[in-house]
Write a structure and sequence with these properties.
The complex is a heterodimer.
Chain A lengths: L1 H14 L1 H10 L13 H20 L9 H10 L4 H28 L8 H23 L4 H12 L8 H9 L6 H33 L6
Helix pairs in contact in A: 3-5, 4-5, 5-6, 6-7, 6-9
Chain B lengths: L10 H34 L11 E4 L7 E7 L2 E8 L2 E6 L10 E3 L4 E3 L6 E2 L5 E3 L12 E3 L2 E4 L1
Antiparallel strand pairs in B: 1-10, 2-3, 3-4, 5-6, 6-7, 7-8, 9-10
The chains are: A mainly alpha, B alpha+beta.
Bound molecules: protoporphyrin IX containing FE and FE2/S2 (inorganic) cluster (FES).
FE2/S2 (inorganic) cluster binds next to loops of chain B.
Chain lengths: ~220, ~150
């Protein structure tokens, strides 16, 4: 304990951590009328961090190729120590995150916290909700099971219903007329890099603006 | 800390409570950290690749005719079949998408529970979304014991 304290002091002297911690954690004031529902955004963010971390672990063994994807996931679940746990947390976490984002959304909508000056919180939030859904959708294809395959097939059929350009969009998303190895590669890149990076950018925007306006004060 | 007359508790007593709370919070934090660190550390360890390289040995006398015997070999399920035509050993993994096929003694066929592939007692496809046969696993019979190694 003493030792930990001294290590902390050493860094504190150089980075001046104490004022930061006091301002943002120990002395931070929030309206006392705030209810539990104000936690959903933070919980969604926590789940996102869990997804990023377990996703990094899964990437050590996952192989994004039609002939190897399913085997590599089975390998994680049965041969990698605790692999079943990490894989399961990532799957359950994806569903949890969607639920939490929707609860958060429901709270913000119910209390009408999208009014001036918070319009951009709402807009960046809608983008985050879309990204969350697409991350879940693209991740679903990766284990390359029957469910994944048909899920991706049906899901990519939806933009196909748009008149005139629908088929073009569908084929663009599929990287060809059918679900193939190309689709898997595309979904993989979206799932592990592109969407998380874009999500982080929008989260920064979301959080910085919430810091600026402060959390809304319920009556 | 400034003392007030409303708080007659002696200082050492409150220090005791403070230490107690600190210990509880510290203990819980360490316990939570360990529940995360243990699986993560295990995950970073070596995967079980050839963990079960030991041979499977099943005495013929323990195999009822027309019944299947399942065993684990090199981390995979294998199925040993014994009937009038002799003994055969297959990988239980369906050549379609890898579910474990089930032997059904009633119709003497293997049924895959996942997408309904059916194989006969020689592992050849009868029906289903697949054209490959069940993979044969080499074995030998020594002194009335089937050995897969
Ligand atoms: C990845 C998804 C999201 C994350 C991680 C996230 C995170 C957060 C966090 C941590 C807060 C601060 C406290 C609170 O929870 O109220 C917040 C506030 C807010 N969020 Fe989100 N959010 C997400 C999606 C959304 C969505 C879908 C909307 C609505 C369309 C939205 C609109 C807002 C608004 C308006 C606030 C301000 C709330 C207030 O001032 O009381 N967010 N968000
Ligand atoms: S896995 Fe056996 S039929 Fe599909």
């Amino acid at each position: 304990m003493r030792l930990l304290g001294r290590i902390f002091d050493w860094f504190d002297e150089r980075y001046e951590l104490t004022p930061l911690i006091e301002k943002n954690v120990t002395h931070k004031q929030v309206p006392r009328t705030l209810g539990w529902s104000a936690c959903f955004g933070g919980l969604a963010f926590l789940t996102f961090l869990v997804q990023v971390f377990t996703g990094m672990l899964l990437l050590m063994y996952y192989k994004p190729h039609p002939s190897a994807a399913w085997d590599s996931v089975t390998f994680i679940k049965s041969n990698v120590p605790m692999g079943w746990l990490v894989q399961r947390i990532h799957t359950v976490g994806a569903n949890t995150m969607i639920v939490l984002v929707f609860m958060h959304f429901a709270r913000v909508a119910y209390y009408k916290i999208f009014r001036k000056p918070r319009e951009l919180h709402w807009i960046s939030g809608v983008v985050l909700m879309l990204i969350t859904t697409i991350m879940a959708f693209t991740g679903y294809l990766l284990p390359w099971t029957q469910l994944s395959y048909w899920g991706a097939k049906v899901g990519t059929e939806i933009p196909g219903a748009v008149p005139w350009i629908g088929e073009g969009i569908r084929n663009w998303v599929r990287r060809g007329p059918a679900i193939s190895g190309e689709t898997l590669g595309f979904f993989f890149s979206l799932h592990i890099w592109i969407l998380p990076a874009v999500a982080v950018a929008f989260m920064l925007m979301h959080f910085m603006m919430i810091r600026r306006t402060g959390i809304s004060r319920p009556l | 800390m400034s003392e007030t007359t409303h708080d007659p508790a002696p200082t050492h007593d409150r220090d005791g409570r403070r230490t107690f709370c600190k210990l509880c919070i510290g203990g819980l934090s360490v316990a939570s950290a360990a529940t995360v660190a243990y699986p993560v550390a295990s995950f970073l360890g070596m995967p079980i690749t050839v963990g079960a390289n030991k041979p499977v040995a099943v005495p013929l006398s323990s195999l009822a005719p027309g019944q299947a015997h399942y065993a684990e070999f090199q981390g995979q399920q294998i199925v040993i079949l014994s009937d009038e035509e002799g003994q055969r050993v297959f990988s239980a993994s369906c050549p379609h998408l890898g579910c474990n096929v089930m032997w059904s003694p009633a119709d003497a066929l293997f049924h895959c529970p996942c997408h309904g592939a059916v194989f006969n007692s020689h592992g050849q496809v009868v029906s289903g979304p697949v054209s490959a046969s069940l993979k044969k696993v080499p074995f030998e019979v020594k002194n009335g014991v089937i050995i897969v190694s």
